[in-house]
Amino acid sequence: MIKEARNKLNNVFGYEDFRPLQEEVITQVLDKEDALVIMPTGGGKSLCYQIPALLFDGLTIVVSPLISLMKDQVEQLQQYDIPAIFLNSTLSPDEYQRNVDRVRNGEIKMLYLAPETLMMDKTRKLLATQNVDLFTIDEAHCISEWGHDFRPDYRELTEIRKDFPNATCLALTATATPRVREDIEDILKLDNSETFLASFDRKNLFLKVADKEDPLEQTLDFLYTRKKQSGIIYCFSRKQVEELYVELKKEGHSVKPYHAGLSKKLRNRNQEMFIRDDIQIIVATIAFGMGIDKPNVRFVMHYDLPKNIESYYQQIGRAGRDGLRADCLVLYSRSDKQKIQYFINQKEGTEKKVAEKHLKDMLKFMETDECRRVPLMGYFGETYKKDNCGMCDNCLSIDAEVEDLTVHAQKFLSCAVRTGEQYDAYYIADILRGSTKEQVLENGHDELPTYNIGNEWAKEQWILLARMLVNQEYLDRNESHGPLSLTDQARAVLDGKENVFGALDRSDTVVGDQAMER
Ligand code: ADP
Ligand code: ZN
């Protein structure tokens, strides 16, 4: 049988070889054993039922909640000359009837349905006349309240499954925590089934979380070294999308917005422009990205904290589809966390409990000192075994040497004090490096004892130090680019009572020339 499956793979679909787990799943299905398949998006779930569908005598039913994806798949299959159709509310009565007739006449190999269509009496009566070999449930996580996308309709599938005693049941999803997995198995009664779990590790994605301090400046810094790269920036709200879009536009970036508040026409146009590389960046809410298969997305940035790991994973999953390195950056702040908490507090019962658990898991990822892949893949029930992935901020900072930076910190802090704690990091770095800029000379700051005592470091290094001193709470900054003032802890450093340790973090924002110019 598997030989014939391979034959279909080569000759119908035109692929050379199976992807990981496809062959195993197909073998299981052809043996008429139930299976639960958990494979990340883009992993190749569809072939797991499309190939058996071609080999079975009877009908294959595919339940899917996504009408747009249903349509895409059916059109694709029809191009391969596979008799596949769908039944859902988007069809005209005539088309609907024609499709029903084709099923009744046994002309069809694959029938795609939304769950609510499947539950209708007339559909059940129609299917009772057919020999159904395979009952496929796509997006099977929708069955569980513990998933991120619960659909009460999916619960009815338990009953409907009984209509097809000869059919093998194949449930597929891109995201299922161990808890959701148990729910799927219980609810669909997949007692003797096998679970196929593909790895969720996307090795070419560099994962980073940064404290959100001055998000606009951080975004501009991030984009500065990615001038020609294609990327997505996700924001929490439509309003935030619009604001950031305007700012980036002002800075000369090639960018368009995307959110549900825009007309469908405009949304489609912006999406098309992004896919065709007519624009470089799309600033979007979570409404953007479903079904998008653009290979060269080089970065996905989260301007705001994502709601849960599933959506985060799905969103970063749109980067680096070509297998080349791509960068994923989240800006994380406590106030974002409170914003999400606020929405959670309006919920009740299980829904609230579930949302709380999702937030907690997300925060675990944000706040870990370990490799980011440990909590990320742990969430999907996978144990990450490598000590150092080499592709996340935490693993890199283990490599970066933590140095004693006390002397440099003292120079910087002392210069900030001597200029009255009224200046930003760029100006202080200028003084330390003996700049002859007009402003420095006019202010008489070339007379200071701290003038020109720091030219052993490039300006970039001083800026990174300043950022680190803010992070470690030696310096306070009330507004973006605002003056830096010393904390009590900083005075202890100046008095020689405390040493400053750290690694100058260059992995995210290599502060480029843009910063130098300020
Ligand atoms: P999923 O449903 O898991 O997100 P799809 O089934 O849509 O993934 O497959 C993702 C892409 O990978 C599709 O373009 C599909 O044609 C392609 N694909 C799937 N299996 C193979 C394979 N064995 N060889 C090459 N390409 C494949
Ligand atoms: Zn790591």
TrEMBL record:
One of its GO terms (cellular component) is replisome. Residues 215-363 form the Helicase C-terminal domain. GO terms for molecular function: 3'-5' DNA helicase activity; ATP binding; DNA binding; four-way junction helicase activity; hydrolase activity; metal ion binding. Residues 26-194 form the Helicase ATP-binding domain. Its cofactor is Zn(2+); Mg(2+). It catalyses: Couples ATP hydrolysis with the unwinding of duplex DNA by translocating in the 3'-5' direction. The keyword Transferase does not apply. Keywords: ATP-binding, DNA damage, DNA recombination, DNA repair, DNA-binding, Helicase, Hydrolase, Isomerase, Metal-binding, Nucleotide-binding, Zinc. GO terms for biological process: DNA recombination; DNA repair; DNA replication; SOS response. It comes from the Bacteria. Its EC number is 5.6.2.4. Belongs to the helicase family. RecQ subfamily. This is DNA helicase RecQ. The gene is recQ. The chain holds residues 1 to 518 of 724 of the full protein.
